[in-house]
Input
Amino acid sequence: WKRNPAGPAFNKHEYTDRPAPGISGTNYAANFVDFLDQKPKDQPFFFWYGAYEPHRSYKKGIGKEQGKSIEDVDPADFYPDVPEIRSDILDYAVEIEWFDQHLEKILNTLEERGELENTLVVVTSDNGMPFPRAKANLYEYGIHMPLAVMWHNGIPGGRVVDDLISFTDFAPTFLQAGQAPIPEMMTGKSFLDVLRASGSGQVDESRTRAFSGRERHTHARPNNFAYPSRSIRTPEFLYIWNVKPDRWPAGNPTGSGDPQGYHDIDACPTKTFYLENRERFPVLTALALDKRPEEELYNIKNDPSCLKNLADLPDYQETRQQLRQELHETLRTQGDPRMLGNGDIFESYPRYSRMRQFPGFKERGEYNPEFQ
Output
């Protein structure tokens, strides 16, 4: 890119000594002050605080070093409840707290300058926790992000809202809040009406669907293949269509030159534990690493960990068929190549980050001519 489409970066201020390996040296709060200092006075602004944390890697054991207790950790049901994984989650918590500390400083700066009351603040994440069966998956722990919104002069606070919001809804919401026109090409729908409402629970009765998808997360398969999946999430159910169930969802186990394999899972102590203890926890390990059926259906209310696939059970065939049809119709309307028979176009796209030693195409930054 000749320029970042999000705007110029503000990264000048860095810490002389980082608090721990794995934590960025960038002083996010100080760089936000730089941004405010250079912006035109009394003019609207947009700032994206995009922290590196809690991306991996983490300093192993930093959670316990900082006085946290593994007894306080409640691992998700799809993880073995062992000290190694509890400790990994504690380390994750330390990096989340680092993000939170800088967010607090940024909000304090806005308040000191008299800007906080009229600033729309949105806090979320770009994906699920960087652990097996979370990040780079369409399960609840992969697509259900935290979302907190504050605008003192614009919306009533102190509410918990159940409406399903998609990331595509952010841009039209920001434009409407700024009294700017929303381009017709935008597929998202502003949720400013939900923010301005006074109630909790389900505010907009139409917001009962959220669609998600994935293609390539990293170079995790021969020929730089993706693991294409699509999903529809309702208040009660999550339906997943795995377009290529013959592929390894977490990446191929071998062939990359790295003995661990499964590269769609970030390297971490939890992943290593799975690989070294498959015989002790065969079911949970299979859920994280092994191939999956073409269709998956989960009752989110009863099974947020997505452990029991209901897709083949007789009592759920009507739900399965209804959600499958709705998902496929939406994908056709959106022109999704995976739905229209030319999904191989996704296999052609360049990867600009690291390439591994898998067989087949692996030219960094180049299109794969076989699928163009």
